[in-house]
Amino acid sequence: MSGQPIQDANLALLALGANLPSSAGPPRVTIRKSLSELAKSPGIRVLAVSRFWRTPAFPAGSGPDFVNAAALLHSRLPPDALLAELHRVEAGLGRLRQGARWQARGIDLDLLAYGDLVLPDAATHDAWRALPPERQAERAPEGLVLPHPRMQDRGFVLAPLAEVAPGWRHPRLGRSVAQMLADLPAGTLAEMQPGDT
User: Fold this and answer.
1) 6 within domain boundaries
2) What is each CA distance from 4 to 1, 51, 142, 183, in whole angstroms?
3) Start and end of every 7,8-dihydro-6-hydroxymethylpterin-pyrophosphokinase domain (predicted)?
């Protein structure tokens, strides 16, 4: 994809990650399987997939390295239905949505953005985006918040995403994916390694 702004209201940005085996196999196999399952879903087309990146688990030493990727989707489903489809694919690969946040897992499919929608509203989105880091691990929104309130802070999201949607512009920050990636502190990507798909 070029660095041109993305205008299509039906384009969705997706982050994929895993660092444990799933029912499909090791993380790389699981991510490929999740993409093939999504491609079978009515109303969803997978348009582009990034390389797979190796990313150290956070905090350091908390588990095996993650495999992270990003995908650009075209969806005829509304955002809540698309999220439900992501959860269906995760469940089919053995994920149980319970326990602590930010833990080792066999598959994680995160809806990062849907066109330029801001959900549920600008004020709520801004509040979640401003949540201090120590509170982020303790609290999760009850409903869908778009764009994902942490995406601008995460190299493991932005580096793969810049390969498939560098020109997508955050509707609250006014920054493109490429710009948000460049805004990250020096050294953020130092331990990440791109690989093949």
Assistant:
1) no
2) 8, 20, 33, 18
3) 14-166
Q: Give the count of alpha carbons within 13 A of 111, CB side only.
A: 31
Q: Model pTM?
A: 0.91
Q: Which two tokens stand for residue 135?
A: 């509170």
Read off the tokens for 71.
């995908």
Q: d(Cα 27, Cα 19) in Å, to the nearest integer?
A: 6
Closest CA to 156 of 188, 134, 179: 188
Rg (CA), the chain: 16
Per residue in 76-104, pLDDT tens? 999 999 999 999 999 999 987 665 555 67
Angle between helices 27-40 and 79-92 (to 10 degrees): 130
Residue-number span of the structural domain to which 35 is assigned = 11-194
Query: Which residues neighbour 58 within 8 Å (Cβ) at sequence distance 6 or greater?
Result: 102
Residue 4 in any domain: the answer is no
Q: Which residues contact 75 (CB under 8 A, 6 or more apart)?
A: 10, 11, 12, 43, 44, 45, 82, 114
